Structure formats: structure tokens, C-alpha cells
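Entry 14. Ran structure prediction on the chain below.
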Amino acid sequence: MTQDITPWLNEIKALQEKIVKLQTELNVAQDSASKWRQLYNTEAQQRRTETQLAQETIQTLKAQAQKLQGFPSVEESIDESATTIEQQIENLQTLAEFKAQIIKVVQERDRAFAQVQKLTEALEQEQVNHTNTRTSLTNALADAVDILAKAKANKQQKSEITPDIQSKTEANIQAQNQIPLEESFSPNAAKLPPN
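Output, C-alpha cells:
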């Protein structure tokens, strides 16, 4: 009889080891998902900060470019900018000074436009990088969630199998316990030698 129980006990032990292994895999998958989620949030915050800084820089450079072109910025009134321009023109006494000042202003304007263009391109590239990062992190997070779901399904499947094995094992043990009781009630029954 004990030989009949041994395979069942071995199978129960193997299933318990599998459950422990699956629980470990589930814990690892949950830790991995948590790490990916944290990385995604960190990367997203970094991208938002960089985008905000780039937009502020672009706004500053646009304001400088408007000043160099002679257009009043939003903060300045039209009268103040006209007065400033008139004062600068009155300080110029010769045509050569006037030409030099115009060349200087045009060069500064061109540099500002080039810098705005570079920052705009950098912002666009950063937005593309952010989108790519978000996509890859979202895919990794989805993979981690799939692994978690599979591990959970395997755990539930194993836990459904385990009660069936336990009930069969309990039935075998009860059947073995009943045999000695029946033998003790029948005095004429032949005695089996002990194992």
C-alpha cells in the first residue's frame, strides 16, 4: 500500500516545487514590470522637461530676433522701441557708420534665425526620440504584463490540479485505514505477514 502512495507523494512534491518556481517567476516578472514602469515614467518626465526648456529657449531667441529686426516684442510698447531706434540712428553721423550698423544688425539677425532653426530641429528630433522611447517602453511594459498574466494563469491551473490530487490521496489513505479495521472485526480472517 505504501508503494501505491509513493508516486502520488512524489507527484505532489513535484507540483509543489513547480508552484514555488512559478511563484518565483511571477515575483521576478512583477519586479521587472515595476522597473520598466519606473523607467518609462523617468524617461517621460525627462522628455517633458527637455521639451519645455527647448520651447522656452526658442521663445527667447524669437524675441531676440524680433528685437534685431526692429519689430517690437510683446513686452515692449511701440513708442519705446521707436524711441530706442531713433536714438541709435541719431548717434550715427556718417554713412559708413550707418552701413556698418546695418551689417552688424543683419548678421546678428541671421545668427539668431540660424540658432532658432537649429533649436527647432533639435526639438523635433527630441519629440521623435520621445515617441520612440515611449513606444519601446510601452511594448516592454506590455510584454511584462503578458508574462505576469501567463504566470498567474499557470499558477491558477496548478492550484486547480493540486486539490484533485489531494482528494485522491486522502481517499487512498482512508481506504488503507479501513482495511486493518475490517481485518480486526473478522476473527477467522487470515493474517498477512508484516511488511
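The chain is about 90% helix and 0% strand. Will compare against last week's run tomorrow.
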